[in-house]
Amino acid sequence: AVLALRDRPLAGTCVLVTAGPTHEAIDPVRYIANASSGKMGYAVAAEAARRGAEVCLVSGPTSLPCPAGVTRVDVVSAADMRDAVMARAPWADVAVCAAAVADYTPAAPADHKLKKAEGRLGSVELVETADILAGLAASGEVGYVVGFAAETRDLLDNARAKLTSKGVDLLVANDVSRPDSAFGSDTDHVWLVDDAGAEELDTLTKAEVAADIWDRVQADLGREGG
Ligand code: CTP
Ligand code: CA
């Protein structure tokens, strides 16, 4: 049993992860998206599964294969992602929201392909999406919630503000203006920010960042492996 705990420190833990971008429809053939590859969230899900957790990965559109031992739920829009996440909140012990959720969505997507001559494509009215991470943390259904922050300036100030305003336990702050931490990069340079302070990690692969995140979560939950 001791060996099993050392190898699978997250055995018996239900982990919910969001990853990837979302696509917000303008009409049936056009959408608003962003540059997220989904790699960070997939690495977080893969590492949790490796450590023995039951993992549900709610993923926006990506080209990545589902990691071994992970159950994936595919979604397209921010609204779909929110529904999928909130439906599974009562099940989850830990949630990690790594998705690059669209902040705005078209107010009234067209049900037909818009024609240039209709003159509606020059400007599209947008409305703010719901904040999935903040809603999940506020629901109180998940014992430990991790968020990410992508910033290009004032990294730690913005990260601390998000930690507080979203009510999360741990915030992974990513300076995406750095070449070694940009969207689509194979490495990341992040800080782990919580109420106790900010820990700077080295420039690491996404798999290494995922391992450091889980080491921290396990330490906070008193579930240290070997
Ligand atoms: N997030 C979310 N739902 C949204 C927007 C963001 O769940 N509608 C989550 C992301 O998954 C991430 C965290 O909130 O874990 C921070 O996302 P980020 O884009 O850095 O922050 P925002 O609060 O959206 O603020 P801004 O984009 O203006 O910096
Ligand atoms: Ca955002």
- Radius of gyration of CA atoms, rounded to a whole number: 18 Å
The major beta sheet can be summarized as: 8 strands, mixed
Q: Which geometry do the CA atoms define? A: globular
Per DSSP, the total helix count is 6
Overall average pLDDT: 95
Strand order of the largest sheet: 5-4-1-6-9-10-11-12
Q: How many angstroms separate the termini?
A: 13 Å
Class computed from helices, strands and strand pairing: alpha/beta
**Which bin fits the share of residues in helices?**
25-40%
Please, could you describe this protein's structure?
It is a single chain. With 226 residues, this protein is of the alpha/beta class. Helices cover 29% and strands 29% of the residues. The chain has 6 helices and 12 strands. The strands form 3 sheets. It has an 8-stranded mixed sheet, sandwiched between helices. The longest helix has 16 residues, at 206-221. The chain is globular and about 70 Å long. 39% of the residues are buried. The protein binds cytidine-5'-triphosphate and calcium ion (CA). Cytidine-5'-triphosphate is lined by residues 18, 78, 97, 99, 101, 103, 129, 131-133, 147-150, 162.
SSE diagram, text form:
Layout: H1 2-7, E1 14-19, E2 24-27, E3 30-32, H2 39-50, E4 54-59, E5 70-74, H3 78-88, E6 94-97, E7 104-106, E8 126-128, H4 132-139, E9 144-151, H5 155-166, E10 170-175, E11 187-194, E12 197-205, H6 206-221
Parallel strand pairs: 1-4, 1-6, 4-5, 6-9, 9-10
Antiparallel strand pairs: 2-3, 7-8, 10-11, 11-12
Helix pairs in contact: 2-6
The protein binds cytidine-5'-triphosphate and calcium ion.
Cytidine-5'-triphosphate binds at residues 18, 78, 97, 99, 101, 103, 129, 131-133, 147-150, 162.
